[in-house]
Each structure stands twice: as structure tokens, then as C-alpha cells.
Design goal:
By secondary structure, this protein is of the alpha/beta class. It has one domain (about 10-185): Rossmann fold (3-Layer(aba) Sandwich), CATH 3.40.50.150. It is about 30% helix and about 25% strand.
Length: about 240
């Protein structure tokens, strides 16, 4: 039986899979996603369903699909939706992102989100645990695979939001534009105001015109080492 914990007071209940813990990356991406006016979204590689859950909790008119390769994570994502009475506004599919054309019709969604693996197989150290390494390294899904799926699934004018490593922004932008996903918003995440960014939040638009809006950086901690007001807002700790 999964162990469910409220993410914040009076907030959604959530249970984590052993190999797919709720990460800062997921929480920040869910906050970054602009779901206003969107009706049908999909989270590519949804793991335990955290991003879909947070978006559904915030946007009552949104329906979210989660696509996850690992069956045990997909099953837990379904249980997370059911625990919060969101099964009518969600659908969790166990499947391979690379086979997206077999699973969905083109342009089925107006919102696509992804927290993809950050490291190519030939770069960086990966965990010896196969499931954990699959979440962090491009063993079963590359950046190009993610962008190809997002481009196919996203309708014209729809958005694609992703969290990624700043050092790979050039690769991300090239992969997105090659698939017709024009980068429109960029926000860097820094631990402190004077530290180098550790994450990049990017939103692209399917068929959008060139023009990138660079937002103020999201700073996680202040000079006193405490969480900033924005982080407290994101985590509902105000």
C-alpha cells in the first residue's frame, strides 16, 4: 500500500516511487508551466505523476495524460490521481515516448511538459540502478526523442515546457527549433543570487515566431541561507 503524504496543508496527497522521488525540478517546472486556457496536456515521462498532479490541482479545467515507460511508476501515478479524485481528469499510459505516433494522434494536446534525462550516455556518471539511471541518463530516450514527441503531440500554437541543464541549452534550443518548437520563455534557476544557474526552465510554442523572453532568475535561497519568498510561495510554505 503506497504511503501518501499531503504536499502542503490542504494540498494534494502524493506517494513516491522508490526510484522516482519528487524533485525540485518537477516542482519548479509545474510552477513555470503556463496552463491558462489550456485544455489537454501531457507529461512525457511522468514517473509517479507529480507534474500532472500539480497542474491538475491548479487548473480545474485541464485534463492531463501521463506517459511513463516503467509500469510500477505508471501504476503509482494512477493511484496518486485516484487518491485525489482526479481520475476523471487524468489518464496514465505505460508506453515508450519513442513510439508516440502509435499511441496518439498528431496535435492531440495543447500543453506538453517534460522533465527529461539530463545526461547523454557518454557523459557523466549514471547510477548502476537501471531505473534510476534511466531517469537521469539518455538510455531509453534522448533529447531529440523528447522534442520529436513534443512536436508531434502539440497542436499549432500549443506550448512545450521543459526543465533542463543550463550547459545543454544550446542543444535544447537546436533540437526544439529543428522540430518546429520555437523557444519563447527562458528562466534560469540559481541557488543564490551570485551563483551560476543550476537549472533552466524553457517554454516553446509549436509554430511560434522567433523571439525569446528571458525572465528574471529564480533564486532559491537568500543571503541568510533561507528560502526566498518565491520558493516559499511555490512550495506553499507562506
Amino acid at each position: 500500500m503506497p504511503e501518501f503524504t499531503a504536499l502542503w496543508e490542504d494540498g494534494p496527497a502524493f506517494a513516491q516511487a522508490e526510484h522516482f522521488k519528487l524533485s525540485t525540478d518537477c516542482v519548479l517546472l509545474a510552477d513555470f508551466v503556463n496552463s491558462s486556457g489550456r485544455k489537454r496536456g501531457i507529461d512525457l515521462g511522468c514517473a509517479s505523476g507529480a507534474i500532472a498532479l500539480l497542474l491538475l490541482w491548479r487548473s480545474p479545467r485541464l485534463h492531463m495524460t501521463g506517459l511513463e515507460l516503467v509500469e510500477e511508476a505508471a501504476e503509482l501515478a494512477r493511484e496518486n490521481m485516484e487518491k485525489n479524485s482526479l481520475e476523471d481528469r487524468s489518464k496514465i499510459i505505460c508506453g515508450d515516448i519513442r513510439r508516440h505516433r502509435e499511441l496518439f494522434k498528431s496535435g492531440s494536446f495543447d500543453l506538453v511538459a517534460a522533465n527529461p534525462p539530463y545526461f547523454p550516455v557518454e557523459r557523466g556518471r549514471l547510477s548502476p540502478d537501471e531505473k534510476r539511471s534511466g531517469a537521469r541518463g539518455e538510455l531509453s530516450c534522448t533529447l531529440e526523442d523528447i522534442c520529436a514527441a513534443a512536436s508531434y503531440l502539440c497542436c499549432t500554437g500549443g506550448s512545450f515546457s521543459v526543465v533542463y541543464k543550463p550547459e545543454r541549452l544550446s542543444e535544447l534550443f537546436c533540437a526544439m527549433t529543428a522540430k518546429g518548437l520555437e523557444p519563447k520563455r527562458l528562466r534560469l534557476v540559481c541557488h543564490k543570487a551570485d551563483s551560476a544557474p543550476s537549472l533552466a526552465l524553457v517554454e516553446g510554442r509549436r509554430g511560434g515566431r522567433p523571439g525569446l523572453d528571458i525572465l528574471p532568475s529564480l533564486v532559491l535561497t537568500g543571503p541568510d541561507g533561507r528560502e526566498t519568498e518565491e520558493v516559499l510561495r511555490i512550495y506553499h510554505r507562506m
